[in-house]
Design goal:
By secondary structure, this protein is of the alpha+beta class. It is built from 11 helices and 8 strands. Helix 2 packs antiparallel against helix 3, helix 4 packs antiparallel against helix 5 and helix 5 runs antiparallel to helix 6.
């Protein structure tokens, strides 16, 4: 009997012992009910013992079945809780059955793996959320500096970097060493490279590299879009022949300068330049010669002006120049320098047999801190009147606008 029960689970042993007791009780009952058995008192005692043994066997079977059913019920509850995502609520009661214990161990391992998967998914969801927020932020940027600042801050925070720099590829970088496993360089756009350095003791893995490249790719697409947008804006505001601002952008940019001059009580000088005999040269030598003259004058204007000055092709061969924080006396020095620059240009090679040497007629007007009532339309009218006066005085000269005197 002992050998027969060895190696079996406790529940199986209880069921087998119960079945054996029940069979023994049944056999005893059949035996004592035979009429030829003597000693009625002995028969009663034997029947009582066998009945108790049978009841004990039935009780063992019921206990084993009950514990097995309870284990199944807890298992079903645990599976339901896992399906609902309530992993922390899963609990197992005592299960003496060996198979149940093995099943519980397997189930516990599955629960741990599911919990780790949930934590991994939560981390990935957070990472994707941060990347999406970064993308939405830089898409609202209007300048390259805003995108780069946001990129540096996000990389340092999300990747826990020890350092990050955005540099031109031609410049030396302390993070450019390929032998340092903590360093990673990724091209951003054009010749710009992002150099990233991990803290001491850490190395780049594929997950970190992929996340860094995802941030940089998002920034790259926004920078390319901004570059295209700025180029389109530049083309819409500039003259394709001379590269100066066109007349369409004149009102917007000059109005800004007028408002700044009024706010800060500073002078603003306006210059209008016209090329003398341009129509005769253009008619005699063709439009290519005229275009060459206009581009040469535009180059002279660029070489003469400061970065804060504004130059416009006003129309045909007329140009308007705005000189912020410049008095009339200072503006006269600027236009004289422009005339000297233009006079040194040699046009004979590009335009042979040139009869009239190109010269400039220039008008000047100032919106001064004292006479600050001039609006932009009045200022344009004033400088146009000064140019008209220069042409009537024989051309190739500079005239300053003077308001008419009261009668």
């Amino acid at each position: 009997m002992k050998r027969f029960l060895a190696g079996r689970s406790f529940h199986t042993q209880m069921v087998l012992v119960g079945v054996f007791c029940a069979l023994l009780s049944a056999c005893g009952v059949l035996l004592v009910t035979q009429p030829n058995i003597p000693f009625a008192e002995l028969r009663f005692r034997v029947a009582l013992i066998l009945t108790i043994t049978g009841l004990l066997g039935i009780g063992l079977i019921m206990v084993a079945v009950r514990q097995f059913v309870r284990g199944l019920r807890h298992l079903g509850e645990g599976v339901t809780q896992v399906i609902d995502g309530r992993l922390d609520a899963v609990r197992f009661h005592d299960m003496p059955n060996q198979e149940m214990q093995q099943l519980k161990a397997t189930f516990d391992r599955m629960v741990r793996e599911l919990r780790q998967t949930q934590l991994g998914l939560a981390a990935r969801t957070r990472t994707l959320g941060q990347l999406l927020e970064f993308t939405n932020t830089i898409q609202r940027a209007t300048a390259e500096e805003q995108v780069l600042t946001c990129l540096i801050d996000s990389l340092r925070l999300e990747l826990r970097l020890g350092g990050v720099m955005v540099l031109d590829e031609s410049r030396l970088s302390p993070f450019a060493s390929g032998a340092d496993l903590r360093a990673l360089s990724v091209s951003l756009w054009q010749s710009v490279v992002v150099h990233m350095l991990l803290p001491v003791g850490e190395k780049w893995n594929e997950e970190r590299k992929g996340l860094a490249e995802a941030y940089i790719n998002s920034a790259r697409s926004v920078l390319i879009s901004l570059d295209h947008l700025h180029e389109a804006e530049k083309q819409s505001m500039t003259d394709p022949l001379t590269g100066l601002f066109n007349r369409r952008s004149l009102e917007q940019l000059l109005q800004r300068e007028v408002l700044l001059a009024e706010r800060h009580t500073q002078p603003l000088s306006l210059v209008m330049v016209d090329m003398d005999h341009f129509k005769q040269i253009n008619d005699a030598h063709g439009h290519a010669a005229g275009d060459h003259l206009l581009k040469a004058l535009a180059d002279c204007i660029r070489h003469t002006l400061r970065k804060t000055d504004l130059a416009f092709r006003y129309g045909g061969d007329e140009f308007v120049i705005a000189l912020p924080q410049t008095t009339l006396h200072q503006a006269e020095q600027v236009v004289q320098k422009l005339r000297q620059e233009f006079a040194t240009v040699d046009f004979e090679e590009a335009i042979p047999h040139l009869v009239h040497t190109p010269t400039l007629s220039i008008g000047l007007a100032e919106r001064s801190a004292v006479c600050n009532t001039l609006t932009l339309p009045l200022l344009l009218c004033a400088v146009d009147q000064a140019l008209y006066d220069a042409k009537n005085r024989g051309r190739n000269c500079v005239r300053i606008y003077s308001p008419p005197r009261a009668a």
